[in-house]
Amino acid sequence: MEYKEHPGRVLRHWLSGPFIWMMLIPITILDVFLEVYHHVAFPLYGLTLRKRSEYIIFDRAKLSYLPWYDKLFCTYCAYANGIFLYAAAIAADTEKYWCGIKHQRARIKALRDEERTYLAYGDKKGFEDLSKINKDE
Q: What angle do CA 122, 111, 33 make, to 5 degrees?
């Protein structure tokens, strides 16, 4: 996105980038251990396996109006956020199996509630408008 070229943001993006990408290591380790647990324990408990593809969705790279680097970043976000949603679903199934008692007060709403404010998939004009707004900041 063009807003990444805004003078006030470039330095912050370069400084934070390594920390963002470093997170791939623990996320990938979580992914491996989660899959082993999921495929060993769930059959033993008689629980239905969750479909990974319902949580980790790599569709933004198909958007022709995104430059290659945004497609790469979108792939990272799809994987990272998808893994955490997938892990939460597996943890919830495990909790329901072992306990299933509601908490006294409701949990914080799921992060995905925030997606309601995201641009619609395929909204090229909205993406370009957002880029212009962010560029002017």
A: 100
Distance in angstroms (rounded) separating the CA atoms of residues 123 and 45:
43
CA gap 36, 34 in Å, rounded:
5
> Of the ranges 18-22, 42-46, 75-79, 122-126, which one carries the lowest mean pLDDT score?
122-126
- The CA dihedral of 66, 134, 84, 99, to the nearest 10 degrees, is -140
Angle of helix 7-22 relative to helix 24-45, nearest 10 degrees, comes to 40
Q: Is 38 exposed, middle or buried (0-12, 13-18, 19+ CB in 10 A)?
A: buried
pTM of the full predicted structure?
0.74
